[in-house]
Amino acid sequence: MTTSPVRQPHPLDLLDLDAHLTESERAVRDSVRRLCDDLVEPHIAEWYENGRVPGLRELAAALGDLGLLGMHLEGYGCAGMSAVEYGLACLELEATDSGLRSLVSVQGSLAMYAIWQWANEETKQQWLPQMASGRAIGCFGLTEPDHGSDPGSMRTRARRQGGDWILDGTKTWITNGSVADVAVIWAVTDDGVRGFAVPTDTPGFTATEIKHKASLRASVTSELVMDGVRIPDAFAFPDVRGLKGPLSCLNEARYGITWGAMGAARSCLRAALDYTCQREQFGRPLAAFQLTQRKLVEMNVEYSKGLLLAWHLGRRKDAGVLAPAQVSLGKLNNVREAIEICRTARTLLGANGVSLEYPVIRHASNLESVLTYEGTVEMHTLVLGQLMTGLPAFR
């Protein structure tokens, strides 16, 4: 009996996960990679350093042309791709920058998903085709200045007045906020928390960009203020009450982060591997030293496990059996390990590790924000703790 020789795995794909992807999944991954390489990679360090993204709407249109906005949704001009294809796209986007993945994630998994899942048909038809093409940008208003992990205590209020709603309140740390055409706003009403699709040109609605960030600098982050914003009842989401609405959207976004964080990790791992193979000290490449190889291997082991976890969750999501607590596990583990990979890469690059000539410090800084948003480490830990013990420990 003869056997074929075992093919050596790629240094950045030790488990040969690529062999388990379908042709369609590889095509999505490769097309997103080409877009990032052509439109974003040549400029991202400058955008990050300057804290602004010129031509953001043109970039959104290019993302829409490729079908990346709301890509996992069906109908209304959305691409209807699989969860794994969406995850692979998130991985490639965040391998370029977390801010780029945030733009796509907030547009598709938060704003578009909220409208797609919870709005009436008229609102869906009004916004989703425009958002899928990138002609309209959306944001998702849940977090408030005094209420992040405890959205049930939000102070934004919506009250009925005739056939309209009047919204008052403030939301903060809102990605895309000051460039958005429509804001999904969650507010307390007399019958519980409700969602609203609010056109941002409505009188009384203002959005101010948040400056002086040291993380996610190539991303628009804003504060939203609603002062007597009047909208018709048709803009209210008709059938969802309580935190079920916003939490269902957050679960979609957290799934994408599970993949995206591994993109940032891969970028830093690749930079560290390339650098240490080329950089010489004591007459030898840094990669020839045992301690360097140990760091590289430990980074790659955690990256490989995180990628396998994301892939497993994606297959479960496509099968319709993915539980929210499993998404918490993915987000908790993969962002935490990605940060450690980026920090270790920083040490291998020495002083060059803090230069924007390399992607490492940018990814490490961005991931500090990703670690906190869409659920902190503490909150995801307690979600899993409650699942294990049956005992809630949030209060």
Automatic annotation (TrEMBL):
Gene3D superfamilies: Acyl-CoA dehydrogenase/oxidase, N-terminal domain, Butyryl-CoA Dehydrogenase, subunit A, domain 2, Butyryl-CoA Dehydrogenase, subunit A, domain 3. It holds the Pfam family Acyl-CoA_dh_1. InterPro entries: Acyl-CoA_Oxase/DH_mid-dom, Acyl-CoA_Oxase/DH_mid-dom_sf, AcylCo_DH-like_C, AcylCo_DH/oxidase_C, AcylCoA_DH/ox_N, AcylCoA_DH/ox_N_sf, AcylCoA_DH/oxidase_NM_dom_sf, Glutaryl-CoA_DH_mitochondrial. The keyword Secreted does not apply. It comes from the Bacteria. The keyword Oxidoreductase applies. Residues 241-386 form the Acyl-CoA dehydrogenase/oxidase C-terminal domain. Residues 139-229 form the Acyl-CoA oxidase/dehydrogenase middle domain. Keywords: FAD, Flavoprotein, Oxidoreductase, Transit peptide. Transmembrane segments: none annotated. Its cofactor is FAD. Residues 22-134 form the Acyl-CoA dehydrogenase/oxidase N-terminal domain. PANTHER family: GLUTARYL-COA DEHYDROGENASE, MITOCHONDRIAL (PTHR42807). Belongs to the acyl-CoA dehydrogenase family. This is Acyl-CoA dehydrogenase family protein. It comes from Phytohabitans kaempferiae.
